[in-house]
Write a structure and sequence with these properties.
Layout: E1 3-7, E2 10-11, E3 14-15, H1 17-28, E4 33-40, H2 44-50, E5 58-63, H3 72-82, E6 88-92, H4 95-108, E7 113-116, E8 118-121, E9 124-129, E10 134-139, E11 146-150, E12 166-169, E13 200-204, H5 215-224, E14 227-230, H6 232-236, E15 257-261, H7 267-271, E16 278-283, E17 296-299, H8 302-312
Parallel strand pairs: 1-4, 1-6, 4-5, 5-12, 6-11, 7-11, 13-14, 13-15, 15-16, 16-17
Antiparallel strand pairs: 2-3, 8-9, 9-10
Helix pairs in contact: 3-4
Length: 313
């Protein structure tokens, strides 16, 4: 029987929703047990949140001062040791998971499977390639541990309820590297919903015209309670910071509603929104590729259309 270890992603003492999505992928395998591993200097709050995710048997914690910040070089040796006895090790396919899990796979001597979007069997999975233009089926060696990142946009978050998972502190005997150290974390602060977990997202592209003009995107997003995103073209033009970028080289998201404003629809951008529920496109170019995937399209000047939409909200 399969036994799966899910690596918890957290920041500032708060569990990231991506962890619950990884649990959903684990549950699709129908394993004997799903455990979550929390690594931190102070594990209590995150472990308590993780224990509330339905389907989780145990929440294992490793509390060490070295785990105060999620450094892949420091976390990976501990995860590899803790993975003993597990058939699968999963982590979200986020910046965190993409940083940590390849090191874990290397330490365990296996090839990582990236961006799992569906489970076909205990060792058989589907994942996108070629910027999402093709889906391939990959099969892992059943005699080795499966190390995989989970495409969070393809999975719903597992439900949460009362605490059901048992919390257990463990220790691992492993030497930690000293060549990597934490210097500083820089992150933007916003009262808007998190881009990767938001149900509604409003994104702007090069068609917005300037950094100053992008205020119309922020204002409209705030009006409807949405997160703000952007195309790579808008980021490269300096309209917004890179952490708002949606697409193949940015964030992969799956909101219930995605509104693309002034975005032409390059394939790299469409890769990041292919799992969105409803896509609305606003662009003055009626031939823009974004209209090929949009459920609803408005052709016209965004600076006239958006104020009209705001009056209807």
């Amino acid at each position: 029987m399969s036994k799966i270890l899910v690596i918890a992603e957290h920041l500032g003492g708060k569990l990231n929703l991506s962890t619950a999505r990884a649990v959903s992928a684990a549950a699709a395998i129908k394993p004997e047990a799903i455990d979550i591993l929390v690594l931190s200097d102070n594990v209590d709050t995150v472990a308590a949140e993780a224990a509330k995710i339905e389907g989780v048997s145990h929440v294992l914690t490793i509390a060490r001062a070295e785990n105060a910040h999620p450094l892949a070089a420091v976390l990976a040796p501990q995860i590899a040791k803790a993975a003993a006895g597990y058939s699968h090790v999963f982590a979200p396919s986020t910046t965190f998971g993409k940083d940590v899990l390849p090191r874990v796979a290397a330490l365990l001597g296996v090839a990582q499977i990236s961006d799992v979007m569906s489970v076909e069997g205990t060792h058989t999975f589907k994942r996108p390639i070629y910027a999402g233009n093709a889906i391939i089926t990959v099969e892992a060696d059943p005699n080795t541990v499966v190390v995989a990142t989970i495409r969070t946009a393809s999975w719903p978050a597992a439900a949460t309820g009362v605490s059901s998972g048992q919390i257990e502190a463990i220790s691992v005997d492993v030497a930690l590297p000293s060549h990597t150290r934490f210097v500083e974390l820089q992150q933007g602060k916003s009262d808007r919903p998190d881009l990767q977990g938001a149900n509604k997202v409003v994104s702007g592209g090069r068609g917005v015209g300037s950094k100053e003009n992008f205020e119309i995107i922020y204002k409209f997003a705030d009006k409807i309670g949405a997160a703000v995103g952007a195309s790579r073209a808008a980021v490269d033009a300096g309209y917004v910071p890179s952490d708002l970028q949606v697409g193949q080289t940015g964030k992969i998201i799956a909101p219930e509603l995605y509104i693309a404003i002034g975005i032409s629809g390059a394939i790299q951008h469409l890769t990041g929104i292919k799992d969105a529920g409803t896509i609305v496109a606003i662009n003055k170019d009626g031939e823009a590729p974004i209209f090929e995937v949009a459920d609803f399209g408005l052709v016209g000047d965004l600076f006239k259309i958006i104020p009209e939409l705001e009056t209807l909200v």
